[in-house]
Design a protein that fits this description.
By secondary structure, the protein is mainly beta. The chain is 0% helix and 46% strand. The protein has a six-stranded mixed β-sheet with strand order 2-10-9-4-5-6, with no helix packed on it. A four-stranded antiparallel β-sheet has the order 1-3-8-7, with no helix packed on it.
Length: 114
């Protein structure tokens, strides 16, 4: 069973930066594309960044140029470097597979506010 634990969120001022981390259990992590998703209050969960097992990345237009996703297959970790944060980035952030989504972790809250 794959378990996901997100961390690194917090309160940050507009224009600030945060780095999120996701620890995934299970050997199947290394063969799967992974993604960072977010869910703002009253909105549906959306995919903001994805990375293939080989390291190819794609981003939602809303975060392109500001967010960077990376992974460490040896450690079963996925990261999201977030720069130039905006109030509209406020959400709970989750990681999960792209194909074959497994049980969601608890997520990590990111709040961008002055």
């Amino acid at each position: 069973q794959v378990q996901l634990v997100e961390s690194g969120g917090g309160l940050v001022q507009p224009g600030g930066s945060l780095t999120l981390s996701c620890a995934a259990s299970g050997s199947i992590f290394s063969r799967n594309a992974m993604g960072w998703y977010r869910q703002a209050p009253g909105k549906q969960r959306e995919l903001v960044a994805r990375i293939s097992s080989g390291g190819n990345t794609n981003y939602a237009d809303s975060v392109k140029g500001r967010f960077t996703i990376s992974r460490d297959n040896a450690k079963n970790m996925v990261y999201l470097q977030m720069n130039s944060l905006k109030p509209e980035d406020t959400a709970v952030y989750y990681c999960n597979r792209i194909v074959g989504v497994v049980s969601w972790g608890q997520g990590t809250q990111v709040t961008v506010s002055s």
